[in-house]
Design the sequence.
């Protein structure tokens, strides 16, 4: 079992390092998300209840914090984008619809120094 | 009698001729000129004279009126019209006093219209200008620009540096203390907030609010906070437990199911000797697992932030715009800047 866990870690580390090396010049995470936005997102008819929408959020998160922290922020966003977020976050009108205002700053404010 | 009659008759005849001549003269020459003269005098007296000052001082009046119109737009919250109007004043008027007014209010209108870059440029140009009457106000206003750009840390730094600045108007320095106090209260730094509040002594507009805030800090520490560490720990032990703890059962359930499915699938894959699949699933699960812990901690922080915000909502968290204007009460309405 330990061997398998090690493999998982190695795979993950390799993947992150691979992306991180070219990060900036040849931005893989941003390209993947752009591909999703252009080709896959139109197929999905359900609408993101938050603003910015999840793919934009993912772009912003990886751009601000890099792939590793960005990934964690994306997973966090996927967990919390439901109605319960309304209790703690504000709302914004986007395209004539009321949405939960949930930018990256709303989820990293307690550890990220804006400077 | 006869003579008299004759004379009279003859005189009458003569008079008649004179009258006729006179009448003809009046009708042909005198009447038009005199009447016209009287008409002109009357027009001048009743029509032109009353508006003569406005014609003579038309330039000055229009400038004052234009800037007042801009301020009216601002008061009504029509910031785009106010911006247009203040720009108009800047291009029309030459008087320095009015121009400085327009420059400052243009900056403030940009700020309220959420055009932070333009507001920043405008305030910087005021600060850099020589002997601008709003230079000090513009320095303080820049902090509002930073704050609206959601740079809380930079706003704090900027304001802290401002305390070293030698303000001519002590009210402005106290408003900086007040703003810093609010920023500290929002982030839960009660001690430094109290220190700033104690510095407010002379400005009558702020003293009362500062006193209320100081007494409110006592009840602040007993608010029903949730511990982010405990929340994260709970979710690390069992995915979703931390979310339950912070009052988000739906998120908790989602985290529990997703993590449960992925862990189950990973274990199953390894048990059936599908190593590659197992490794892939495990890698994905690791992301979900760490994300779940982060989500629980983040939710606790957001919950605490909400509790803090709700607590302070009852207190006056506004800074009167009039404090930031030379002539107090110039606008006739007090504006609040939300912190």
Sequence:
């Amino acid at each position: 079992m330990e061997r398998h866990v090690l493999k998982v870690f190695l795979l993950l580390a390799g993947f992150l390092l691979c992306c991180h090396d070219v990060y900036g010049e040849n931005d893989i995470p941003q390209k993947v998300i752009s591909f999703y936005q252009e080709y896959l997102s139109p197929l999905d008819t359900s609408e993101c209840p938050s603003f910015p929408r999840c793919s934009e959020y993912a772009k912003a998160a990886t751009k601000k914090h890099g792939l590793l922290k960005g990934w964690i922020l994306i997973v966090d966003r996927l967990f919390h984008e439901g109605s319960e977020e309304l209790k703690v976050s504000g709302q914004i009108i986007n395209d004539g619809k009321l949405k939960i205002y949930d930018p990256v700053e709303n989820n990293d404010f307690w550890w990220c120094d804006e400077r | 009698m006869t003579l008299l009659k004759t004379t009279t008759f003859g005189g009458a005849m003569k008079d008649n001729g004179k009258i006729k001549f006179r009448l003809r003269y009046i009708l042909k020459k005198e009447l038009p000129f005199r009447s016209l003269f009287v008409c002109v005098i009357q027009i001048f007296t009743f029509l032109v004279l009353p508006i003569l000052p406005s014609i003579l001082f038309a330039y000055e009046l229009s400038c004052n009126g234009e800037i007042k119109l801009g301020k009216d737009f601002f008061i009504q919250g029509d910031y785009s019209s106010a911006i247009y109007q203040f720009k108009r004043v800047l291009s029309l008027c030459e008087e320095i006093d009015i121009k400085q007014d327009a420059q400052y209010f243009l900056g403030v209108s940009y700020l309220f219209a959420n055009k932070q870059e333009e507001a920043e440029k405008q305030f910087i140009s005021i600060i850099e200008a020589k002997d601008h009457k709003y230079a000090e106000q513009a320095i303080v206003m820049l902090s509002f620009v930073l704050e609206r750009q959601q740079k809380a840390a930079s706003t704090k730094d900027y304001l802290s540096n401002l305390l070293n600045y030698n303000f001519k108007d002590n009210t402005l320095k106290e408003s900086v203390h007040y703003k810093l106090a609010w920023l500290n209260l929002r982030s839960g730094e009660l001690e430094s907030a109290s220190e700033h509040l104690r510095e407010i002594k002379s400005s009558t507009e702020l003293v009362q609010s500062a006193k209320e805030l100081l007494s409110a800090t006592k009840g602040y520490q007993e608010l029903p906070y949730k511990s982010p560490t405990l929340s994260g720990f709970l979710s690390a032990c069992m995915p979703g437990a931390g979310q339950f703890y912070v009052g988000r059962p739906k998120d908790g359930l989602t985290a529990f199911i997703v993590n449960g499915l992925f862990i189950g699938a990973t274990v199953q894959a390894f048990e059936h000797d599908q190593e590659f699949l197992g490794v892939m699933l495990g890698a994905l699960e690791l992301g979900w697992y760490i994300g779940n812990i982060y989500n629980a901690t983040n939710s606790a922080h957001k919950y605490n932030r909400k509790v803090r915000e709700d607590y302070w909502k009852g207190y006056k968290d506004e800074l009167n715009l009039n404090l930031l204007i030379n002539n107090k009460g110039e606008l006739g309405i007090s504006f609040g800047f939300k912190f």
About this structure: The two ends of chain A are 43 Å apart (CA to CA). Chain A touches chain B through 32 residues (CB under 8 Å).
